[in-house]
C-alpha cells in the first residue's frame, strides 16, 4: 500500500503524430480509488500502462510510494493489473494462475497456499481452484483475474476496463464487489473505464481525460454538479447534459427568447447546460416540441426541441406526453459555459453544493 | 513414399467416414435420400480422389507387401515365393542394424537441432518483428529451395576441394573429408538437412509465438522478472501444440524427405558412408536389384512409421495443452 504520484507525465508513441498523453499530474493518496474516465482513444489505457511499466514513459515522473519507478520493470513496481480480457494463463489451473507471481518472487509454499486460499475464499473461487480458465464462465474468469491481483498484496491495483466483457447485470454486481474488496483491503487503485456510471459509482475521485490531457479531477458528485467544461458536462451523467446556445440579457439567461432565471453575468452569448433530471414539465415555462419519448418504467426521458435545439427532460408523471409542452427549471441548476472555450462560467446565483454525506 | 503414412491415415479415415455418411443417409433419413436419387453421383465425385489413393498408395503398398515375400530374379525371369526370408535377412543383417541405428541417431539430431534452432530464431525474430521483415524473408527463403538443390549447395559448401567449410575446418587444423570419412559425411548430412528444415519450423514457431495473446505476455511481465522464466512457464507451454505438430513433421522429414540430400551427398562415393533406412531401400532395390529384400525393408519402415505416429499421438498429445 502506498501513494501514487504522477508528475507531468506524457507519452508520445514512436511514429505517433501527437502525444497520446501529456502533462498529467495526479497525486493519489494511500488507499484512494481513482477512476480514469474518458472517451475512446483519450489515453486512459496508455496512462495506466505507463504506471504498470508496460509502456515507456516519454516525459515526467511516476512515483509509487517513495520510489521513482520510471526505469523499473513491471515486476519490480509492486503493482498488480487486471486486464480487460482477463489475460489468464490458459495452461495453468486457477490456483497456479494466482500463485505464479508469488512463486517468482520466492514466497514460501506455505505463504502462497495461505494467500491463494484467502483470495479464493473472498472471491468464492474455492470450487474452481483446480480448473483451467477455459472451463470457467466470463464472470468466474474475472474473479480469477481479481484473485491474481489480490494475492500479490501490491502497492497498487491497476484495472483496465475489467468489467467491459461482462453482461450488464454481472457488471453491476462485480462493480460493487470490486468496491467492497478495495475498501476492505485499502489498496490504492487506478481504474480505467469509459462507462461513466461505473466511474461515478466506484471512484473516490474521478479523473476525466480528453485527448490525453486532464479535463477535470474531483469527487464524482463535485464533477457532476460543477463540470469544468462542456466536454465533462456531456460526458458525466446519463442522459447526457443538453447543451444549448443561449444569451444573457439584463442579468437573465434567455433561451429562445424566454427568460430562465437570473444569472450574475454580463450580457452576451453563452452555452447553456441543462440536465434532464433538473428539468421538469410544467404548466408554464419555455415551450418545447416533443419529438419522442423513451419509457423506462420508473421514469421516462422526453426528447424534444426548443427553437430547433434538442434537449432531454426526465418526467416522472404518468400523463401522456406529446405535442407542445412547457419545461421549467430551478435557476440555481443552470450550467453556463463560455461559448468559445467551453469552460465553465460560475453563476453567482447558483446554489453551492452541499457537503457529501 | 515421403509422408504417405500420414496422408494414408487421413484419406483412409475420410473415405470411411464418407462411406458411412452415405450409407446412413440412405437408410434412416428419407429426406436426405432425395439428394442421392442417382446413387452413382457421389461415387463419381469420389472417383478422382479414390483413383489417386488407389494408384499412388494402395496399389504400390500391396505390391510392396507381395513382393516382400518373393525372391525376384535380378534379370526379371520370374519370382520364387520365399515366405518371410526377406524379413529375416533384413533384420539379421548387421548392415541393416547399423543403418537403422544411424537413422535413429540422424532423426534425433536433425529433429532436435532444426526444432531448437527454428525456435531460437523465431523467438529472436518475434522480439524485433516490427520492421524486421527482411530478416524473416531471409530465413524463410531457404524453404523455397528444393531438397536436391539444397543438397547440391550443401555439397559445394562441403566439397573436398573447393568447399569453404572444408577450408574453414582446415584452418582449424581439421581435415574434413565429406564422402570419405563416415562421421564427416554424417556431419555434412545433418548440417544440410537441418539448414533445409529450419525455415519451416521458424515460420510455424513464429506464427505460434505471435498468436500468444499480448495481454497474457503482459500479465507474465508483471508476474515474473526473468525473461527466461516467462519463456519457460508461459510462452513455451502455449507453443506446445505447434511444437507437437512440428515434432511429427520433423521426424517424418528426417526419415523420408532427406532422401534427395543424402542422394546428392553420398551418390557415387566409394566409401562406407552413412545412409538412412529409406536410402537403403532405394539402394538395395534399384542399385542392388534385390526387389524382394527392398520391399521387405519398406514394409518394416511402414510399420515403424505407423507405430511412431500412434505413439506420438497417444503419449505426447495428451501432455500438450490445446487452446
Ligand atoms: N502502441 C501504440 N502505438 C501508437 N499509438 C498508440 C498505441 N497505443 C495507443 N495509441 C494511440 O494513443 C491514443 C490513446 O490510446 P489508448 O489506448 O490509451 O486509449 P484509451 O483511452 O484506452 O481508449 P479505449 O477506451 O478505446 O481503450 C490513441 O490515439 C491511440 O491511437
Ligand atoms: Mg483502453
Automatic annotation (TrEMBL), chain A:
GO cellular component: ATP-binding cassette (ABC) transporter complex, substrate-binding subunit-containing
Domain ABC transporter residue range list: 4-236
Keyword ATP-binding: yes
Alphabetical list of InterPro entries matching this protein: AAA+_ATPase, ABC_transporter-like_ATP-bd, ABC_transporter-like_CS, ABC_transpr_MalK-like, ABC_transpr_MalK/UgpC-like, Mo/tungstate-bd_C_term_dom, NA-bd_OB-fold, P-loop_NTPase
PROSITE patterns linked: ABC_TRANSPORTER_1, ABC_TRANSPORTER_2
GO biological process terms held by the UniProt record: carbohydrate transport; glycerol-3-phosphate transmembrane transport; glycerophosphodiester transmembrane transport
Protein keywords: ATP-binding, Cell inner membrane, Cell membrane, Membrane, Nucleotide-binding, Sugar transport, Translocase, Transport
GO function term, MF aspect, one: ATP binding
CDD domains, sorted: ABC_MalK_N
Record family assignment: Belongs to the ABC transporter superfamily.
NCBIfam families: PRK11650.1
Protein name as catalogued: sn-glycerol 3-phosphate transport system ATP-binding protein
Origin species: Salipiger marinus
Automatic annotation (TrEMBL), chain B:
Pfam family, one: BPD_transp_1
Function summary: Part of the ABC transporter complex UgpBAEC involved in sn-glycerol-3-phosphate (G3P) import. Probably responsible for the translocation of the substrate across the membrane.
PROSITE patterns to which the protein is assigned, alphabetical: ABC_TM1
Cell inner membrane keyword on record: yes
Transmembrane regions listed in the UniProt entry: 40-59, 100-123, 135-158, 236-256, 296-316
Membrane topology recorded in Swiss-Prot or TrEMBL: Multi-pass membrane protein
All copies of domain ABC transmembrane type-1, residue ranges: 100-312
Record-level GO cellular component terms: plasma membrane
Protein name: sn-glycerol-3-phosphate transport system permease protein UgpA
Family the entry assigns: Belongs to the binding-protein-dependent transport system permease family.
Superkingdom of origin: Bacteria
Major site of localization recorded for this protein: membrane
Highest classification ranks of the organism: Bacteria, Pseudomonadati, Pseudomonadota, Alphaproteobacteria, Rhodobacterales
Entries under CDD domains matching the protein: TM_PBP2
Quaternary assembly: The complex is composed of two ATP-binding proteins (UgpC), two transmembrane proteins (UgpA and UgpE) and a solute-binding protein (UgpB).
Entry's Gene Ontology BP terms: transmembrane transport
Subcellular location: Cell inner membrane; Cell membrane
Record keywords, A-Z: Cell inner membrane, Cell membrane, Membrane, Transmembrane, Transmembrane helix, Transport
Amino acid at each position: 500500500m502506498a501513494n501514487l504520484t504522477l508528475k507531468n507525465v506524457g507519452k508520445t508513441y514512436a511514429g505517433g503524430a501527437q502525444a497520446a498523453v501529456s502533462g498529467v499530474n495526479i497525486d493519489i493518496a494511500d488507499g484512494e480509488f481513482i477512476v480514469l474516465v474518458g472517451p475512446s482513444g483519450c489515453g486512459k489505457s496508455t496512462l495506466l500502462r505507463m504506471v504498470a511499466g508496460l509502456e515507456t514513459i516519454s516525459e515526467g515522473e511516476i512515483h509509487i510510494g517513495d520510489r521513482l519507478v520510471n526505469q523499473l520493470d513491471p515486476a519490480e513496481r509492486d503493482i498488480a493489473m487486471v486486464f480487460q480480457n482477463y489475460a489468464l494463463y490458459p495452461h495453468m489451473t486457477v490456483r497456479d494462475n494466482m500463485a505464479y507471481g508469488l512463486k517468482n518472487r520466492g514466497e514460501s509454499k506455505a505463504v502462497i497456499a495461505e494467500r491463494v486460499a484467502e483470495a479464493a475464499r473472498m472471491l468464492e473461487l474455492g470450487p474452481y481452484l483446480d480448473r483451467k480458465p477455459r472451463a470457467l464462465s466470463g464472470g468466474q474468469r474475472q474473479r480469477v483475474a481479481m484473485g491474481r491481483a489480490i494475492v500479490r498484496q501490491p502497492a497498487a491495483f491497476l484495472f483496465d476496463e475489467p468489467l467491459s466483457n461482462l453482461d450488464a447485470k454481472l457488471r453491476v454486481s462485480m462493480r460493487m464487489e470490486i468496491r467492497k474488496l478495495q475498501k476492505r483491503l485499502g489498496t490504492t487503485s487506478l481504474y480505467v473505464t469509459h462507462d461513466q456510471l461505473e466511474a461515478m459509482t466506484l471512484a473516490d475521485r474521478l479523473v476525466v481525460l480528453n485527448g490525453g490531457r486532464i479535463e477535470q479531477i474531483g469527487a464524482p458528485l463535485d464533477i457532476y454538479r460543477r463540470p469544468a467544461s462542456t466536454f465533462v458536462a456531456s460526458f458525466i451523467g446519463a442522459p447526457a447534459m443538453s447543451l444549448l446556445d443561449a444569451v444573457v440579457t439584463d442579468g437573465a439567461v434567455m433561451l429562445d427568447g424566454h427568460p430562465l432565471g437570473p444569472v450574475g453575468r454580463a450580457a452576451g452569448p453563452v452555452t447553456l447546460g441543462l440536465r434532464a433530471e433538473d428539468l421538469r414539465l410544467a404548466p408554464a415555462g419555455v415551450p418545447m416540441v416533443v419529438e419522442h419519448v423513451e419509457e423506462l418504467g420508473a421514469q421516462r426521458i422526453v426528447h424534444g426541441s426548443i427553437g430547433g435545439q434538442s434537449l432531454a427532460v426526465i418526467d416522472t408523471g404518468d400523463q401522456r406526453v406529446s405535442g407542445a409542452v412547457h419545461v421549467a427549471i430551478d435557476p440555481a441548476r443552470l450550467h453556463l459555459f463560455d461559448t468559445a472555450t467551453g469552460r465553465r462560467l460560475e453563476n453567482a446565483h447558483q446554489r453551492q453544493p452541499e457537503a457529501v454525506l | 513414399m515421403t509422408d504417405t503414412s500420414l496422408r494414408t491415415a487421413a484419406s483412409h479415415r475420410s473415405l470411411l467416414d464418407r462411406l458411412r455418411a452415405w450409407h446412413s443417409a440412405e437408410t434412416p433419413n428419407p429426406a436426405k435420400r432425395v439428394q442421392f436419387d442417382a446413387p452413382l453421383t457421389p461415387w463419381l465425385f469420389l472417383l478422382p480422389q479414390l483413383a489417386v489413393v488407389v494408384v499412388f498408395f494402395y496399389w504400390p503398398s500391396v505390391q510392396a507387401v507381395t513382393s516382400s515375400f518373393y525372391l525376384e530374379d535380378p534379370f526379371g525371369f520370374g519370382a520364387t515365393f520365399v515366405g518371410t526370408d526377406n524379413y529375416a535377412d533384413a533384420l539379421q543383417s548387421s548392415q541393416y542394424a547399423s543403418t537403422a541405428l544411424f537413422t535413429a541417431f540422424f532423426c534425433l539430431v536433425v529433429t532436435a537441432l532444426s526444432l531448437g534452432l527454428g525456435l531460437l530464431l523465431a523467438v529472436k525474430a518475434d522480439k524485433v518483428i516490427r520492421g524486421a521483415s527482411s530478416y524473416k524473408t531471409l530465413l524463410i527463403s531457404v524453404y523455397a529451395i528444393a531438397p536436391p538443390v539444397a543438397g547440391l549447395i550443401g555439397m559445394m559448401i562441403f566439397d573436398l576441394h573447393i568447399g569453404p567449410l572444408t577450408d574453414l575446418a582446415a584452418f582449424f587444423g581439421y581435415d574434413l573429408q565429406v564422402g570419405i570419412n563416415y562421421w564427416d559425411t554424417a556431419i555434412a548430412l545433418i548440417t544440410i538437412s537441418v539448414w533445409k528444415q529450419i525455415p519451416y519450423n521458424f515460420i510455424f514457431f513464429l506464427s505460434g509465438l505471435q498468436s500468444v495473446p499480448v495481454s497474457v505476455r503482459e500479465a507474465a511481465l508483471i508476474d515474473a522478472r526473468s525473461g527466461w522464466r516467462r519463456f519457460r512457464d508461459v510462452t513455451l507451454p502455449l507453443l506446445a501444440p505447434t511444437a507437437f505438430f512440428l515434432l511429427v513433421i520433423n521426424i517424418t522429414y528426417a526419415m523420408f524427405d532427406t532422401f534427395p540430400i543424402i542422394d546428392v551427398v553420398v551418390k557415387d562415393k566409394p566409401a562406407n558412408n552413412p545412409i538412412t533406412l529409406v536410402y537403403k531401400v532405394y539402394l538395395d532395390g534399384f542399385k542392388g536389384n534385390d526387389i524382394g529384400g527392398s520391399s521387405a525393408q519398406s514394409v518394416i519402415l511402414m510399420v515403424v512409421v505407423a507405430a511412431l505416429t500412434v505413439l506420438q499421438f497417444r503419449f505426447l498429445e495428451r501432455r500438450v495443452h490445446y487452446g
